[in-house]
Amino acid sequence: MKAGILFASDVCKQADVVLAIGTSWWPEYHVPEHAQVIHIEERISAIGEVIPSQVGIVGNIAEIIQALIEGMTDYRLNPHWLQLVNQCKQVWNEQNKLERAISSSPLHPALIVSVVEQHIDKDAIIALDEGDVTLWFLRNFRGTAHHLVLSERWRTMGFGLPAAMAAKCSFPNRQVVCVTGDGGLGMVQADLITAARYGLPITVIVFNNGTLQMEQDKMMMKHLRPFGTDISNPNFVQIAEASGWVAKRAKTNDELRIALDEAKSTSKPYLIDVPTAKITHPDFQFQK
What we know:
The chain is of the alpha/beta class.
C-alpha cells in the first residue's frame, strides 16, 4: 500500500487477513483493527516487535513466499474482493497520472519523483532519506528492477547520503542515486567531502523547500502553530562544488532531466539541487 493513497487505506481496513513481509510499517490510521496478521521475517526478534502479529514465520523470505505460492494452487479468488482492489488501482492510477504531471514553480514533489524515475537506470540503487521526501517518493515512484535502501526501523534523517556511498562501494558498476530533502542533507554535509575523496560517482537529488515539511504538516494537522521547522540552507551547489562534486540547480523539468542525464556520464559525484514546492502530503490531509 503506497503512502498517502486514501483508496488503498480504505480497502486495507476491510481485510480480514494481512500478510506483512519483511517490514515494520504498521500505520494505525490505515490498517484493520481486528484482522489476523501473518508476519514473515528473516530474524525472529523482528516478529511482534512493531506489528501486532498472530502468526510469525521466520526464515529465508524468498523461499517462504515460494512455498506459500505452491501451497495455494487450489485457492479460488474472491471475485468481489478482486473487483474492489482493481477499482481502487484504476482510480489511483488515473489520479496519480495527473499528480505526476502537475506543472508548478517551484516544482511539485510528485513531478520531481516522476522525472527521476524516467531518467535513472532501470536497475539503479536508490538510497532514500527520511522525512517528507520519503512519503512523496513512496507514493509516486514506479519501480522496475530498482533496489531501494532506506532506514527501515529507526527512520533516521541524514541516512541517504552515507547509504548511497556504502551502496556504491558495494556495487561499483551500478548507478547509485540518493534522494534526500534539504533537512536530511544538512545533517550530513561533511560526507560530501568523503564521497569526493574516495571518488564515488553517486548522484544526489535534493528536494529543497527550506522547511522540515513533515514536522510542519504534523503540527498544523494538530492545529498547532509550526515552530522550528524553517531551515536556513546554504547554497548546496557551491558547497558541493567546493567539496569536489559536479553540481547543478534544476528549476525546471528540462533542467532536471538534463542534469540527471549528465550525472550518468561523469566520473565525479553529482549533486542536483531542486527548488521544491511546499506541498502538504496527503497523509496529513485525511488522518483523523
